[in-house]
Amino acid sequence: MMIPRVLIPVETLDMASPALTTARRFFPTAPCHLLHVLPAAPQTVSSLGGPVIMIGTGEPAHREAEQQLSALGNGEVVSGSDPASEIVRRTFTQEFDLVVMGTSGRRGLARALLGSIAERVVRESALPVITVRHGEPEPTSRILVMTDFSSAANRAYGAVQQYFPGAEVHLMHVVSPTALTAPVSLPPAGRAITASSLIARNREWIQEAREQLATLGGGEIVEGDPAEVALERARSGMYGLIALGTAGRGGVERLMFGSVAQRIVRESPVPVLTARALDPDSSMNGPSSFRLNDNGGSLGA
């Protein structure tokens, strides 16, 4: 088992941080680096009908945060107005292999802000990201890997193989019967769509998916909405982790992220591991860059 170097962005400096408890549960011997971003300017945050809390800045607040963080482990406190950029920038330094972070804060506005930060990190991180909504994670003895056979999905699968070698991994591909395009080498349904043409296309899609799953060691093919299928499995209690690839930063890719991975990250009751495909000219070439060989094994990029 490869022991990852874990970057843990934390909103709250306490032992109950979901990101911190998840990282320590999943990787008890891993070197962890905590990152806490103080706002560049004072902020007031309150829940509906709750008390108003002033988040301070300046040297006193910075020193207090450093003292609190040191009680939790190694790490750093930085000041900035863009926490997502601070996190994403560190994923390109090759100092870390994996990010573990929460997706929801504890207070009104903070909850929404942290969710948007996590979603941006998932979209832009050079490293695989494990997001967790709340609570103590279940054991990761069984992991569901959602694959569309893309390079991003292969990278997520490689991360699972690398960091959870003892887990039972279940590969699944979801066929969306009414989708106009398929993530396999089939022609699009085109403009003249009929029920019979979709049935014929889906039959070919399933056959192609079955062949590709066979090259990865086998798996399950399910028909339905990919996000809903994944969330149903997550709620079943059968899995301790869901893994999938995400799209990149812009255009159609961002819409794809919004329709599938974003919903899973937002709603899954179990931690979610996501990975995006690296740009061809990316400088990331360390242990965090994954691809699969022809037999489904993970290799460094």
UniProtKB/TrEMBL annotation:
Positions of transmembrane segments: none
Polar residues bias (residue ranges): 282-301
User: Which domain of life does this protein belong to?
Assistant: Bacteria
Q: Which CDD domains match?
A: USP-like
| Signal peptide segment | none
UspA domain ranges (all copies): 2-133, 141-275
Q: Where is this region: Disordered?
A: 277-301
Keyword tags: Plasmid
Q: Which Pfam families match?
A: Usp
Q: Which SUPFAM superfamilies match?
A: Adenine nucleotide alpha hydrolases-like
Keyword Mitochondrion assigned: no
Q: What is stated as this protein's family in its record? A: Belongs to the universal stress protein A family.
Protein name in the entry: Putative universal stress family protein
